[in-house]
Amino acid sequence: MIPDSYQPADWRNTTSADADNQQIGVGFNLLDGSIMRLALSLDGAKDLAETLIQSLSIVHSPSSSGSPSVDVSMSFDGENV
Fold first, then answer.
1. What is the pLDDT of residues 20-38, one digit of tens each?
2. Of 7, 32, 53, 56, which has the fewest CB atoms closer than 10 Å, so is most exposed?
3. Domain coordinates in residue numbering, the chain
């Protein structure tokens, strides 16, 4: 269960990576109609992507949904995650 301290949100957008500042922007639509925009470090974004892929593969594994899992590998600067 997700703790109550986490605000429900829908993903809105992801910017292109900014190589000079080593950041990427991610936006979320909040329930009150506002938009939260975060500038993540590229390392933080890689960690986020890895944990999302891992968490989603557990939720959507063949044993949990009956559907085969889909490869959602991403590439950051030539690295496979």
1. 999 999 999 999 999 999 9
2. 32
3. 1-61
